[in-house]
Amino acid sequence: MKEQQSGSVVNVASVGGIRGVLNQAAYVASKHVVSGMTKNAAIEYAQYNLSINAIAPGAIMTAMVVGSLKQIGGEEGWEEAGKEFVSINPKRRLVNLKK
Fold first, then answer.
1. Degrees, nearest 5: CA angle 43-5-55
2. Mean pLDDT over residues 59-83, rounded?
3. What percent of the chain has pLDDT over 90?
4. Phi, psi (deg, nearest 5) at residue 46
5. DSSP states of the chain
6. Contact 13/58 with Cβ under 8 angstroms?
7. 31 vs 13: CA distance, rounded Å
8. Which long-range contacts (CB under 8 A, 24 or more apart) does 63-66 make?
9. Has 48 been annotated as catalytic?
10. I need a surface site. Which of 9, 35, 46, 97 has the fewest CB within 10 A?
11. Among the options 1, 22, 27, 88, which is catalytic?
């Protein structure tokens, strides 16, 4: 891309990397890294006409999210704990990939 003087890169970060997520320090740190590297690369490679961006999806109902919610709210209260995750999504819901 650098030699062609054109191209686009889209990295996948997370809303959690912007706002933080309880009991997920390693995940949040990794997504902060994605955001920081994206910003730096965008500045560094702009001179080569490269577009470098990141998207930051909100919470998606995955095994990782359910596991985190169970750590927070326990087996009985994890769905209630999910309301915190929902609050960081613009649509105020967890995305379900099966639908």
1. 45
2. 84
3. 41
4. -60, -35
5. -TTTT-EEEEEE--HHHHH--TT-HHHHHHHHHHHHHHHHHHHHHGGGTEEEEEE----B--HHHHHHHHHHHHHHHHHHHHHHHHHTSTTSS-B-TT-
6. no
7. 5
8. 64/27, 65/94
9. no
10. 97
11. 27
